Amino acid sequence: MTDRPGEFWKNNKTDLLLAFDADAEKVSWGDFVEDFKMSFKPLNTALEAQLKLQDLKMKERADKYMYQFSYLAKQMGYNDAAQIVAFK
Question: Which range has the top average pLDDT, 2-6, 18-22, 71-75?
Answer without folding.
Answer: 71-75
